[in-house]
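Course exercise 7: structure representation. Students receive a sequence record and must write out the corresponding structure in token form. The form below is the worked example handed out in class, using Endoribonuclease YbeY (175 residues). Read each field label carefully; the graders check that inputs and outputs are placed in the correct fields and that the protein name is recorded exactly as given.

STUDENT ID: A-19
EXERCISE PROTEIN: Endoribonuclease YbeY
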Amino acid sequence: MNGIPTPTVDIQWASDAPDAPDETHLCEWVRHAAIAAGGVVGDITLRIVDEEEIRTLNRDYRDKDAPTNVLSFPFEMPEGLPEGAMDPLVGDIIICAAVVRREANEQHKPLVAHWAHMVTHGVLHLLGYDHIDDDDAIVMETLEIRALGELGFPDPYSPAQQESQAQPENTELNP
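STUDENT ANSWER:
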């Protein structure tokens, strides 16, 4: 993909999510977000879970006892292992299908567009982007908007997007 390194993606289904995008789209969105961030070499696991699993993870790792849409866990090399002892692992992204579905309905967004946004958002967190302060949020949101726009999806932060039920111009991915 234009000489920019992209990750290997492993999809894990830990939830029955009949309206979730297929693995082809999920993998493409992960890779596209990585490209938007400048590229990355390594393995990314994308795990689709239910509310119980994401609530447990959110409670255990963020002290928030509630389900959330997406969590990212960058890989940290265990102490004592020599450099290069393991294949390059980028980390894990956990997405709750039920929360994504609920948010898309509440925000009046097409489900596929919200899935693409959550995947992109998770990848950027995995690669070190954040939105804790305003300056960082601007950087991260700009990358999200650009990456999603390149895939044919509307700006997820636009008030017009949140009021529109229109499908994105392109729900298929560009090669």
